[in-house]
Amino acid sequence: MYSLLRHLLFRLPAETAHDLGLTGLDWAGQLFTRPPEALPVNLFGLNFPNPVGLAAGLDKNGDHIDTLLALGFGFIEIGTVTPKPQPGNPRPRMFRLPEAEAVINRMGFNNKGVRHLVRKVERSKAMQDQAVIGINIGKNKTTPNRNAVDDYLFCLEHVYPVASYITINISSPNTANLRELQHRDALLKLLGPLYERQQQLAGMHNRQVPLLVKLAPDLEQIQLDPIAEVIQQTQMQGVICGNTTISREGVDQLKFGQESGGLSGAPLKPKADSLLTAMRARLPDEIPIIGVGGITCGQDAVDKVQAGATLVQFYTGMIYTGPKLINDCVDSLRRLPSMTG
Questions:
Q1: Which CATH code fits 2-340?
Q2: 148-159 and 184-205 are packed helices; what angle lies between their axes, rounded to 10 degrees?
């Protein structure tokens, strides 16, 4: 069923197919998958039905929460969301590279604003069922980096009451200069105030919502030590490795391979796995890592866990494989003694 749908969708521009695909899932998502048997994981004080999640970017506004969870994900991450609505970058801004099972996008944090997203979460069945919903937050394009902390604080305060966890996105290549926030001094100035506000909000709402940091796979090894130090100093509760890459290795000769933006899908896996391995070596065990990037089959999810991830996420892989990728990953992880023992 999904192979037929994919054939039809791939005849359309990528972003049009993205929007139609989500609408189709809202109507008939249950036809495309059989939710996997439970493989529970307890992390951050949260109960995950299974360790396979949806990465941020597919549902930027929280418009499809219940549909996506019904596919069988153990958790989903929505966003990236910014304080004010913004249109993102001009179209076309998403390109499929089917020969490489990859996508290049330069969306630019297009979203309807944090208040819209919060309303969607509040009205979702998933919220009532206490499903695990991560919310990925960023800054508006017009906000200079020197004021970025204000945008992140604004989003943090608004999403805190409805989020299971919150991801601080400082690694998208599609918002100018955003990745500079990964530099040691800038990172400390950002994460310090966010941690302080998190503690205040925890007291106000009588619940601790974990803060995670999402890093870029293009970081140099020399940059990782100071990042790991700041993450521990500011008491972040987790890390997501990683985001899309600006590298074009393996796709530079393909149609659309030279488009600007972030590359995701199969070619991303080596860089994402390298970042995961390097950060796992630099962080204590009590700071979990979510592995994302290049998962197109169950073995790819296994590789992430064996490299040190506790949970995994994907997005692009599902474009090419369909929702059955959820089952493939859960079934493969089920065979690992570390996941069942």
A1: 3.20.20.70
A2: 30
